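Need a sequence for this fold. Nothing fancy.
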C-alpha cells in the first residue's frame, strides 16, 4: 500500500519558522514517517512544493492508496488544491502541526477539510504519525 505525504507552502522551512512550529525540521518528520510506514508495511512517497499548481498535478497523477496533506497557508484558500483532492477517491487526511482552530481567525477555515476523510491538527510532528496510522487502519479494512 502506498501513502503520498504532501507538504505545501513554507513547510520546507520548518526548523527556521516562527515558534508555534517548534524546532522540528521537515527532514525529521519525513524520516520518522518513513520508519513508521516501514514498520506498518506501507510504502511512503514524499512530495514538497511551494507551488500550488505542482501540488495540483501531483494529486492528479498519484495512484497512492492514501494521501496525507499539509497544504500550509493554501489550506485556507486554495480551491484548486481542494478541487484536485475532491476528484481523488483514495483515503485522504489533512494534517497540521498546530491547532489551526486556536490561532488567527483566517486559519480556522479550511477549504480542504470538506473534501478529505479527516483532519488531524495540533500535535506537532505527531499529527503526521497519527495520519499514517489512520491511513493504515483504513486501507487494511
Ligand atoms: C500549518 C497551519 C497553516 O495555517 C500555516 O499557514 C502553515 C502550517 C500547520 O501545519 O500548522 O504554514 O498548516
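Here you go.
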Amino acid at each position: 500500500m502506498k501513502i503520498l505525504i504532501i507538504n505545501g507552502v513554507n513547510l520546507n522551512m520548518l526548523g527556521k519558522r516562527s515558534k508555534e512550529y517548534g524546532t522540528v525540521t521537515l527532514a525529521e518528520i519525513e524520516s520518522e514517517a518513513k520508519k513508521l510506514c516501514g514498520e506498518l508495511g506501507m510504502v511512503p512517497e514524499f512530495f514538497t512544493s511551494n507551488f500550488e499548481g505542482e501540488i495540483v498535478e501531483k494529486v492528479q497523477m498519484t495512484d497512492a492508496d492514501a494521501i496525507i496533506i499539509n497544504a500550509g497557508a493554501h489550506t485556507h484558500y486554495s480551491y484548486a488544491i481542494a478541487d484536485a483532492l475532491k476528484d481523488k477517491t483514495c483515503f485522504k487526511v489533512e494534517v497540521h502541526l498546530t491547532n489551526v482552530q486556536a490561532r488567527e481567525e483566517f486559519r480556522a477555515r479550511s477549504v480542504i477539510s470538506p473534501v478529505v476523510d479527516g483532519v488531524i491538527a495540533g500535535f506537532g510532528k505527531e499529527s503526521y504519525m497519527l495520519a499514517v496510522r489512520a491511513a493504515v487502519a483504513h486501507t487494511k479494512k
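For context: The first strand starts at residue 2 and ends at 7.
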